[in-house]
């Protein structure tokens, strides 16, 4: 590339950054105020964090609540003091259930999405020859767990290729309609892909599965915390979520929803002592999926504090801002010379996960450059067997940060 070509390419990148910055109102581009989402986090001021799909920085209030409660617990770990935790767990199940329009009896408190997914994978009653449909967008933790079970029990796994550049929800739904057979017993999907950002049309897929008695599970690791969830409207039989990603809560907090009418079909994978069990009758509810032994009891208080922080912002506002910052990041990438976006740009099918490739470039070197020169945190990823960079912006990111990334990419 000639020097002039380099100048033209860099000018294109800077113009892209300028367009993104201008797309936001002045208030959004100004220095963070005391009421901004960023100021509510313990995130270092020089860190530009674009990795919510991996770990989201937690609210200061949640960290403080966890620390206070841990100190109180360690100062008095007596059974008398710990009677407060089953009560807190009951309240938290009810609060989480209300957010997702389900009952507390359908909510289990687990450690993360992977654990919730594993309960659903391992606990579902199946026999040799039964078919389970997944996609090539599923997270490896779910794919590998299903492969392990299928090999041991003679199940038939159908891993459905779904085009990353799908142009409509119906295109995706038609693929599942064609894949379902009389032997299909379950479909397990990532609600949003952790690589392409594709949001799967669960409600339309549920219209296929529910009449046939096919179990539909949604892995909500990449949606829980930023996307408003009405689980009955989505039609899923089970759904998972983690508190440490988009929810901006503590580590090792998770949720498993199991539809009340389907709980008899899904058995727990472990039964230890029920530390949060207030009544033996609750073993007939989703609480049976969380009887996993001693837990970090103070975590319950931290999750509750996280929900307080989110409610202050508002569920609708969190969703709106998450979509908006994702769109701004995507628009910037689409203007980069030589960049190609891995994933659809169709509205309604894409969320705030953006994965570009750069033809002929050393992607790992670009990622290192973003960190060493700008303290920009992104994740390594792969698409079509090739290394890529994944950006997952959230409500604490700004247009100025996106412009910084465009500038750094120009210098890279």
UniProtKB/TrEMBL annotation:
<dbReference type="InterPro" id="IPR015421">
    <property type="entry name" value="PyrdxlP-dep_Trfase_major"/>
</dbReference>
<feature type="signal peptide">
    <location>
        <begin position="1"/>
        <end position="30"/>
    </location>
</feature>
<keyword id="KW-0732">Signal</keyword>
<feature type="domain" description="Aminotransferase class V">
    <location>
        <begin position="80"/>
        <end position="403"/>
    </location>
</feature>
<dbReference type="InterPro" id="IPR000192">
    <property type="entry name" value="Aminotrans_V_dom"/>
</dbReference>
<keyword id="KW-0663">Pyridoxal phosphate</keyword>
<protein>
    <recommendedName>
        <fullName>Aminotransferase class V domain-containing protein</fullName>
    </recommendedName>
</protein>
<dbReference type="Pfam" id="PF00266">
    <property type="entry name" value="Aminotran_5"/>
</dbReference>
<dbReference type="InterPro" id="IPR015424">
    <property type="entry name" value="PyrdxlP-dep_Trfase"/>
</dbReference>
<dbReference type="InterPro" id="IPR006311">
    <property type="entry name" value="TAT_signal"/>
</dbReference>
<dbReference type="InterPro" id="IPR015422">
    <property type="entry name" value="PyrdxlP-dep_Trfase_small"/>
</dbReference>
């Amino acid at each position: 590339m000639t020097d002039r070509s380099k100048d033209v390419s860099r000018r294109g990148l800077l113009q892209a950054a300028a367009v993104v910055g201008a797309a936001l109102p002045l208030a959004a581009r100004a220095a963070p105020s005391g009421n901004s989402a960023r100021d509510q986090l313990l995130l270092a001021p020089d860190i530009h964090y674009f990795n919510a799909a991996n770990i989201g920085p937690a609210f200061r209030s949640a960290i403080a609540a966890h620390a206070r409660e841990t100190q109180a617990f360690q100062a008095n770990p007596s059974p008398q003091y710990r009677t407060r935790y089953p009560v807190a767990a009951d309240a938290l199940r009810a609060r989480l259930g209300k957010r997702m329009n389900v009952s507390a009896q359908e909510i289990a408190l687990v450690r993360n999405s992977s654990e919730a997914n594993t309960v659903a994978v391992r606990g579902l009653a199946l026999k040799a020859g039964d078919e389970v449909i997944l996609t090539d967008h599923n997270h490896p933790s779910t794919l590998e767990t299903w492969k392990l079970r299928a090999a041991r029990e003679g199940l038939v796994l159908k891993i459905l290729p779904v085009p990353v550049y799908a142009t409509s929800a119906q295109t995706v739904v038609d693929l599942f309609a064609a894949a379902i057979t009389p032997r299909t017993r379950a479909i397990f999907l990532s609600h949003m892909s952790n690589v392409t950002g594709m949001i799967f049309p669960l409600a339309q897929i549920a219209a296929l599965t529910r009449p046939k008695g096919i179990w539909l599970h949604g892995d909500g690791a990449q949606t829980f915390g930023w996307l408003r969830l009405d689980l009955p409207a989505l039609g899923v039989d089970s759904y998972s979520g983690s508190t440490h990603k988009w929810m901006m809560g503590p580590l090792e907090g998770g949720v498993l929803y199991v539809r009340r009418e389907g709980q008899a079909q899904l058995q727990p994978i472990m039964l230890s002592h029920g530390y949060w069990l207030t009544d033996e009758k609750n073993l007939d509810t989703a609480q049976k999926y969380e009887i996993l032994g001693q837990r970090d009891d103070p975590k319950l208080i931290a999750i509750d504090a996280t929900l307080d922080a989110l409610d202050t912002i508002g569920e609708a506002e969190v969703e709106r801002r998450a979509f908006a910052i994702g769109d701004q990041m995507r628009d910037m990438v689409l203007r980069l010379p030589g960049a190609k976006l891995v994933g659809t740009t169709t509205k309604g099918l894409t969320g705030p996960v953006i994965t570009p490739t750069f033809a002929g470039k050393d992607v790992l070197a670009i990622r290192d450059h973003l960190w060493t020169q700008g303290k920009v945190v992104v994740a390594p990823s792969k698409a079509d067997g090739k290394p890529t960079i994944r950006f997952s912006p959230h409500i604490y990111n700004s247009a100025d940060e996106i412009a910084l990334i465009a500038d750094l990419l120009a210098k890279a």
